[in-house]
Amino acid sequence: MRQILVLGAGLVARPLVRYLLEEPDFQLTVATRTVAKANDLLNKHPRGNAVQVNVRDEVAMRDLISHADIVISLLPWIHHMDVARLCVEYSKHLVTTSYVKPEMRALDAEVRAKGLIFLNEIGVDPGIDHMAAMRVIDNVKTNGGDIVSFFSYCGGLPALRDNNNPLGYKFSWSPVGVMLAAKNNGRYLKDRAIIDVAPEQLFEHYHLLDVPGAGCYEAYVNRDALPYIELYGIMGTRSMYRGTLRNIGHCESWNHFKRLGLLDQERTFDFAATSPRQMLAALVDSNGDDVPSDVARYLDIPHYSITIKKLEWLDMFSEKKLSLGEISVFDMFAYVLQHRLQFAPGEVDMLLQHHEFEAEYPDGRRELITSTMVDTGIPDGDSSMARTVSLPAAIATKMILQGRISLNGVHIPVLPEIYNPVLDELESMNIRLNETIHTL
Questions:
Q1: Candidates 57, 63, 125, 270; catalytic one
Q2: Does the annotation count 363 as an active-site position?
């Protein structure tokens, strides 16, 4: 019986747990701060075990990891290195869906020496995006061509039928994660020029994109795209861009939210005594008589602006106290967003992924290759975000334990021995990207 330790029981964990419990030789331990969530995921399965753990409790974590054959960390990325170091110490494989940090890459030699694999970025973004891209890139190379431009986009949104709030967004993953990502900088290559986007300009630096079969969206840069030139083996490319997709109007409003200070993690208020309206008045130095108009003047936008309407819809001009105690503006806004931007029973999300490649061949032929996924969640079942994030990790975990992935070291899924079988199995679950080729 192979022992699998799953750390975390959040919004995306259910499909992974259910998939791995289908294997009769796998025993799962789901460890999380709130043990009720783990029990709910396992649903009294005879090969499932729920454990309550604080990830900062090193003694408890050592005990859990020492008894596992492989560890899947679905924790926030800030905890991955503590888990990774224990996996090295106890010689355990590790799987995460998060971006590889330099500290994780620095473990490569130790991981290789112990005959282990630490497979990261095996979710949807990052994850399926890497695998789908590499399948196209390697196919072009096999046919003698070169990729000279690559634009990659991904977004998790409400499905079109359930896009029924003014923000055009609902949470299918961590609200804090969404808000922290809004504070990132960006970098990409366009026509051989490096474009740097400061955090303050993130939501000002966007463009519109038509996604086949899904509509028109805003796209803004997602982190630093330049390292992927080498990782994807497309050193001759003239353009390399990775972007996030959101509904029309998102970027302007979130830019205003940032300018108001709603993503400030340092400034605090006692929200047992301070209403959202009073907090906004303090942020814009208003006397409190007409806070919406003062906010509009502070942002230099009309009082009838859609951003003011969105703040009204979020009850940010309400005098009602939230009884949250002394917390940051960031945490208060995260609370408001999480409670207002929920999926109602029966509603579903949508996961968009769209890639555009330009390929050139020795005979002078040029092609535009597009690869697009429009995946929706299951009514009253798993969200698309949960399926597309956790199933690649689950499939890879099974492959590692069955010896079908025999690589050692710190990896992301850009090698054919990883991406081909994972993508093939995802396609059997109707999670696939449809490709088109146009001659230029």
A1: 125
A2: no
